[in-house]
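On clarity, I found the account of how folds are encoded harder to follow than it need be. Since the whole study asks how a given chain folds, the encoding of that fold should be made plain. For the editor and my fellow referees, an illustration may be useful. An entry of this sort, consisting of the sequence and the corresponding backbone structure tokens, reads as follows:

:::
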Amino acid sequence: MSSMITGTGIHLPGNRVDNERLSRIMDTSHEWIVQRTGIETRYFADPDEATSDLALQASIRALEDAGLSPNDVDYIIMATMTPDYYLPGAGPYLQRKLGIQNVPCLDIRQQCAGFIFGAQLADSLVRTHQARNVLLVGAEVHSCLMSWDSWDIVLGHSDRAVDEEEKEWNTRFRDRTVLFGDGAGACIFSESEDNGRGVMDTLLFTDGELSDRIWANAGGSAFRPFFNPSMTEKGDTVPMIRGREVFRLAVTLMPDAVIKLLERNRLTLDDVDLLVMHQANLRINEAIQQRLNLPDERVFNNIQRYGNTTAATIPIAFHEARIDGRVKPGSLVCFVALGSGLHWGAVLYRA
């Protein structure tokens, strides 16, 4: 018994925001952003759209792709760092919107590594006959974290001029806010009798000593009260990233996980047909590709269009790779990611 990805689906909200639009509210430019990140556009949700709303649309499409209905789902795993509410998680809201009841929902918080940790869980549930069809969703609405008063401009509702004080405030966070986008990706993991296909192996790590490399200094039991107005006033809701150190860690730990996982399965990089990395920064992915000495046709990137959608990047990328014909029956796909925690690791999957 193995677990196969039998359906995939994605959803991007309706507000496509290019770099020129961001340059209207902060001291940046299309060239500045592309040079540092590779990102050209991203999508932002409307103010009344929550993470479970995006997850719902991606889930419906994944179920349709798998030829299943919501009632066929017997387990939901929701990976997000931006739940609808801080209590409860977003999983029950997704379940309710799908119109199903009494199906267990598990919310996990591994941020950018959420999908690969979720894939291990989904595979384990299927292999141990705890579930037949697991819905794994990575979804984020990062726009709720942005400390901007300029949303009318960002979303294209206004072309008003931004005064210097507003622009200076927005520019304080440009090294991080230009990175993120909103989106959702969903996969259905189902039972398969073909033991030569499906999830082959996973290798995951966490190092809490590195937890302050990517973190948010707002909201939580470390504060009294849990939230306070100063968090917004100081912009602490915007995630903090030690950029250079995270770059160094990513280009070391991610390829190392890939190589160790392949060696454990008596495989080499020559056996990998497609590497699907977390889409945090195109420059990171280019450095990893170079370190692994993989040609362009064996690596898939789409951060240029969507930015960093955290837990959603890998399922969105895998879906697009399938649609583009980059994943064929029998293809060996390797997923790899690193996220706040630090959490990182890799998954081997035979399509």
User: Anything to note?
Assistant: The CA atoms of residues 276 and 335 lie 5 Å apart. The radius of gyration is 20 Å. The chain has a mean pLDDT of 96.
